[in-house]
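JOB MANIFEST
job_type = single_chain_structure
chain_count = 1
residues = 403
[input]
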Amino acid sequence: MKELTSASELCCANCSTSMRGDFCHDCGQSIHSVLKPVHGVVEDALEMVLHVDGRIAHTVPPLFIRPGFLTLEYFSGRRVRYVTPFRLMFILCLLAFFVGHIALDQVSSTTDSIGHISVGEGENAFAKATTPAEVRRSLKGQLAGLEIARQTGVTAGLDTAEQALRRQARERLIALGEAPAASTSAATPAHASSTAASNSQPATEELSKDDGALNNHDWGSRHDPVSIAWLPDFVNAKLDRGLMHLKANVQALRAGGDSKREAIERFKAGTFAVLPMTMFILMPVFALLLKVVYLFRRRLYMEHLIVALHSHAFLFLTLLLISLVSMFGVWLVPHAAWLAAPLRWIEAGLGLWAMAYLLLMQKRIYRQGWIMTVLKYLLVGWCYLWLLTIALVIAIAFGAASY
């Protein structure tokens, strides 16, 4: 034990080394005690959050607008101002999938409300309109909402919903004493829908015949346990449970109604739960691709891994922004239809910037000519696209087998 040289000299409580600051230079322990009032703990928490937020403010803008800047800063040793690559990618990954899940739920709820309109239940959607101008304005806003749903990939029931809206608008206009003139825009969807229905009837009959095995009660009730000899018992048990959940979800989807909606929610929740883990597994694989493609650049694998982390952090940030724009579109376009086109252009611009950003980042970090950079960019992108497709299929399979 070291002795104090003076009564006023402080020693580290952990190793008794003389203190020359707030931290012990021998063991690193802080001079401040953890036994403090509650307000002191709150102050420490706020300080930590503000410090992290300060680093995020220095990290996120250059991550989005300056390709390769953060990676080159990290290679140069200037790291204290920025969030570390793995933490940055981890935070943005969780935020992107969380907001994406919310956006997907929002689109689903919009589709559900459209479905209620399409079956024609309840009162006229324009019953509260007191003038023909209000009817037309309300119809325009609701048709804009249908268009947003189409742009987000939703197609089921939209034609029927559009027909129902136009029919109810005509009925309300007639009730208000203004019979609408016949228009091809109002008649065309109905004609197209009836034609599609007549053409799809034989296909529906064929599907009902071919799906007899899946609709058979024995398919869901009979269960052959999974038993693969070279796999451990717990893996076989997990596969067996997944298969049972998959069968239950398929039956719920075919049953329709509340069972179908619950199965879809389980499917989405299971898929989004697996996707972050899947992306973490792909990260070192992407770094390995860069290592192979730039084998003669004599860079360490860790350098390629940092490039991969920053690249994925940018992609997750772009996905987060696209999800936010999509959510704002669902909220605002029904009230301001003129916003639909600008929001579409913003989403398209973000997608194009993502492709250009990765190319510029690759060029600035590895410092090769444009021809070699473009060729290697296309090669890495093509290989990674296949890996990402396989990973998404696996995530979807896990989502379908969740319960």
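[summary]
Residues 88-206+256-400 form one domain.
DSSP finds 13 helices and no strands in the chain.
exit_status = 0
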